[in-house]
Amino acid sequence: MKPLLTTKDVAEMLDVDPKTVQNWRYLQVGPPYVKHRGRVYYRASDMTVYLAALPLAA
Q1: First to last CA, the chain
Q2: Distance CA 36, CA 49 (A)
Q3: CB-CB contact of 40 with 29 (8 Å)
Q4: Are 8 and 18 in contact (CB under 8 A)?
Q5: What is residue 31's three-state secondary structure?
Q6: Most buried one in 5, 17, 37, 54, CB count within 10 A?
Q7: Residue range 9-52, pLDDT digits in tens
Q8: What SS3 state is found at 20?
Q9: 10 near 21, Cβ under 8 Å?
Q10: pTM for the full predicted model
Q11: CB burial of residue 55 (10 Å; 0-12, 13-18, 19+)
């Protein structure tokens, strides 16, 4: 896995539309992100923690 993921990468991982991930950022929910030179990235290590913390569907 790449050390930094794009919004599109995260959307594919979570099986949601990239607009949903953008909306989560606006609402300050969802996985943590960083900005670098005006672009948004997600650390792969943060995504691992985020995915592990999600509740499992019954």
Answers
A1: 28
A2: 21
A3: no
A4: yes
A5: coil
A6: 5
A7: 999 999 999 999 999 999 999 999 999 999 999 999 999 999 99
A8: helix
A9: yes
A10: 0.87
A11: exposed
Using alpha carbons, list the distances in angstroms from residue 24 to 1, 47, 58: 22, 14, 24
Q: Compute the chain's Rg from CA coordinates.
A: 11
| Amino acid letter for position 43 | R
**The pair of three-digit structure tokens given for residue 34, joined into one six-digit string:** 């960083």
- For 24, list phi and psi in degrees, rounded to 5: -60, -40
Two tokens at 17? 């539309």
The tokens 């670098």 sit on which residue? 36
> In this structure, are residues 53 and 16 in contact, taking their beta carbons and an 8 Å threshold?
no
